[in-house]
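Structure Section — protein described below
Tokens — whole-number codes for backbone shape
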Amino acid sequence: MAERELRSKTLLRPADFFQQNAADYDTPFHGAFYRRVAAKLIGMIPSRISPSSILEIGAGTGFATRLLEERFPKARVMALEPSPEMLARGRRRAAGADWLCQPLNGMPPGNFDLVFSSMSFHWLDEHEREKMIRLAGGGVLAMALPAAGGPRLKGNTAMLELARRLHEPGKDRKGTLPRRIRHPRNMVSVLEKHFRRTSRESLSLPERYYTIEELARSLHTRGALYALFEDKAELAGRLLAARQDGNIEFNWQIALFVAEGGRTGSAQPCDRGSWRQGRLTAE
């Protein structure tokens, strides 16, 4: 297929993308990755924090949800996941949570003691990001997201070369790295406007792949190509897989944040009685 045709395809919503890739996503290999990120993030939450209500945004197939249930057994966990197939798999893995299949913008006003977002923040639009902060209210916001920096291994170099190759003339060269990938310092400055205390840590997760094609498949399944290249994602995957490299190491650089003491005003608990009845409406 010609490059022009590949790039002209309609861009999927994130929920539709993961709906199509749920079976590949929900495997032990990817589960180990997401559990490591979630476990690190949960470990950053101070032991004095004992939430009674937790909202997990972008719960996926429940890898992090299960860990939240184990860490906070007395809390009521609401797992928000807009992909029906991802949600069905997550409900089987973390049956104790209340699962809701809708986007974040559909949540009613209110606050949770803990709002948790592990590897989903970069999928949210600006309105949803603002909504997430409001829902954290006077409680705790914990989130992990892909970040710039970290070791530049062979696979990371290949991705940077691919980004330069797909760079469009006339655009700022700084835009080669997508807007979804933020430097941790920038995120801290944003959180400090809304919360009184913010802690930050980083996590480097190197992975080894026998072939570049295996790396391309992994990047596709986790949505990395889609997040990085958007309408060029399919083209990027094919160009990457066409390389003749083998024995590839790729580093996933993750930034993790825990923010406490919201400056957004008084906390009003979300009406959790409507969770199971599916009566949540847009704000």
Residues 3-151+177-206+252-263 form a domain with the Rossmann fold fold (CATH 3.40.50.150). The mean pLDDT is 82. The first strand starts at residue 53 and ends at 57. The beta strands are 53-57, 76-80, 98-100, 114-118, 140-146, 195-211, 246-262.
